[in-house]
Specification:
2 domains; 7-stranded parallel sheet; 4-stranded mixed sheet; 18 helices; 46% helix; binds nicotinamide-adenine-dinucleotide; binds magnesium ion
Amino acid sequence: MMRRKLTVLGATGSIGVSTLDVVARHADRYEVVALTGNTRVDVLFDQCLQHRPRYAVVGQEKDMAGLAGRLRSAGLDTEVLAGPQALERVAALPEVDTVMAAIVGAAGLQPTLAAVRQGKRVLLANKEVLVMAGALFMAEVRTHGAVLLPIDSEHNAVFQSLPPDYAGDPVRAGVSHILLTASGGPFRSSSLERLKTVTPDEACTHPNWAMGRKISVDSATMMNKGLEVIEAHWLFNVSPDQIEVVIHPQSVIHSLVQYVDGSVVAELGNPDMRTPIAHALAWPERIAAGVAPLNLPAIAQLSFEQPDFDRFPCLALAYRALRAGGNAATILNAANEVAVAAFLDGRLPFLAIAKVIAATLDAVPIAQIPDLSAVLADDTRARSVAEDFLVRWPA
Ligand code: NAD
Ligand code: MG
């Protein structure tokens, strides 16, 4: 069998580690060509020892020599690179056929686009890419014939619940709605009064999933579900009115597709990201992921609720940005990244995250985004506007 040759962008993060766990179970199928990390150089070193990649990329040049020396001493000839250009280079290597896009936030946009422009099979965890540049990104996917496979558990579930020949045509497929499930996060049943005093560590303690800190805060504000609504719009070519969010605290049903005849098709499983990762790595085949089988009698109950847009205004802000179109989602994403970073730094109260985003959406004019430079300019502008708003709500 020809082994798939892999670049893992964001290898040292939660998704990256889960990806390498699945890959290690199938050394006959996958060969790691490049791994990238940012500041967790020790983790990257250990991953290099295990997977022996041709390239390793760190965030900063100051970390290059140290890592290269340690790898040489360990008998590896892995080439160490640094910085954003190196990320693009390893995403676009001719010998690589599959790229896992698992960097968090806007930093992943250009490396993921570099992989798309080489027509690679792109496994997309980095949802911010579609939120900030969805129209442009999907156009590049079509132009270059890239194969885009969703890793986000909800979108992977929707992908599995759609017909194989779906091809972005909900009318022909008879799709009525996409129902995205949401755990509700750690504060699903907390009062507004309680939300006022949420700390970063409380926000990062998720009931069902162990994830990076940024997406954990997004889950706590429910902006994560808002970003996923936008992500679903671009991935599946459905209108905002066709995307619904349903709270499902057990996270067993990962999302559903409702058809015009009343049928609802869903994907279920234990909440473990190795399932969507293995699905996308092997698609259209199936491989073992190391995930325990679902034990329905042990789970006993699945429950559902309406989302509360009053306690979780970020969800409404995401729908607002999607409906506004143009650069609105770019602005939303940039303001959210600034606000979440400030909250994690102890500079912004939890409930002010939504306020900073709303104020930024009000302040930055909505415009079309003709090209990548317009996306990057809107991103930069929205970040600086959001930074200026932080002082309004001191922690
Ligand atoms: P994480 O914080 O655990 O890992 C992020 C990775 O990106 C790390 O390898 C880090 O080194 C790298 N990175 C961060 N900033 C960088 C920069 N400026 N330049 C280069 N590399 C940088 O995050 P995660 O939880 O693994 O999430 C990754 C992406 O996957 C996010 O977009 C998230 O929304 C999405 N996602 C995650 C999960 C999950 O269960 N963790 C589920 C669905 C989607
Ligand atoms: Mg998700």
